[in-house]
Write a structure and sequence with these properties.
By secondary structure, the chain is an alpha+beta fold. Helix content is 57%, strand content 20%.
């Protein structure tokens, strides 16, 4: 069976052959296209955390949008909504911990245990721990949820009459109960910093505000990761263009054509080049 890999273009359903690629070109392309795919996977934990953040914020409020709090609301209904709110909070917490842990592991493996990249990321996490109560509170809440279960036990809902629209408008606040948190998990288990802070908190304090503050911290951390990956993406992009012998003015019509001939029968398989993971052509030097 005869088999070759060619660079080609597909336009309006028509395939155009450009040149056959050598073994060395294919190996260089494979190495750096796989590199781009692996780098892209490092963004997934952040995207999951971001999605869980929006689900917590938006779906929890949507649960109560059309509820008539001016009348009697069944206890079973409020219990179900409290459980669902906790489920979404658990998902956000889990993705928060996963993002930080996975990113540290990735940076350690990619750049080294003593690398400046890993050191900078750890310094950034320490900064957010020191200056953002929500961030350090949720760091400690991990142990609480493992041993004590659902952390959020209070939903404050009110209905205000809008006389102009002749309807009631709901206001919902999700809250942590300070006393419950401290009863189930003594101050010393919350740590020397968070424990005393928790003791000074009001009896019920907002969940959503802390989730919002923590998500801002996660976004700032992710900006560091994007910065570290930029150099790797630039290098991979330049090597892919070098391997394929195309310059920085590429377009997404380029593709790889796997041509096979066996027993007189010919077939072509089209393989897409991961341009969507590459740096934009405006930021690349010419490679040929």
């Amino acid at each position: 069976m005869e088999e070759t890999i060619n660079l080609g273009k597909v336009r309006e359903g028509k395939v155009e052959y450009l040149q056959e690629l050598s073994k060395e070109q294919i190996e260089l392309y494979d190495k750096y296209s796989k590199e781009l795919i692996e780098i892209n996977k490092t963004t997934w934990p952040f995207l999951i955390a971001k999605e869980n953040y929006f689900l917590f914020m938006e779906e929890t409020l949507a649960d109560f949008k059309n509820v008539n709090f001016a009348g009697e609301v069944p206890w079973e209904f409020m219990q179900e909504k409290t459980i669902q709110s906790n489920r979404r909070l658990f998902n956000f917490l889990g993705s928060f911990f996963s993002y930080v842990d996975h990113t540290k592991t990735y940076l350690s493996r990619k750049f080294g245990k003593d690398s400046k990249e890993l050191l900078e990321f750890k310094k950034e996490t320490s900064f957010h721990f020191d200056y953002t109560f929500g961030y350090r509170f949720f760091c400690k809440l991990r142990d609480y949820t493992i041993h004590c279960g659902m952390p959020m036990g209070n939903i404050s809902a009110t209905a205000t009459r809008n006389e102009k629209r002749k309807v009631y408008e709901n206001s919902v606040t999700l809250k942590f109960g300070r006393n419950e948190l401290l009863q189930k998990f003594p101050t010393k288990k919350w740590g020397n910093i968070v424990g005393p802070e928790l003791e000074k908190k009001e009896e019920f304090f907002s969940v959503s505000n802390l989730v919002y503050d923590t998500m801002l911290c996660i976004q700032n951390l992710n900006e560091k990761l994007v910065e570290f990956n930029k150099t790797l993406i630039d290098e991979a992009t330049e090597n892919i263009l070098k391997a394929l012998e195309i310059n920085s003015n590429w377009d997404e019509n380029y593709c790889l054509l796997l041509w096979k001939e066996q027993n007189g029968e010919k077939s072509i398989q089209i393989s897409q080049i991961p341009f969507h993971l590459m740096r934009t052509k405006k930021k690349l030097p010419n490679t040929v």
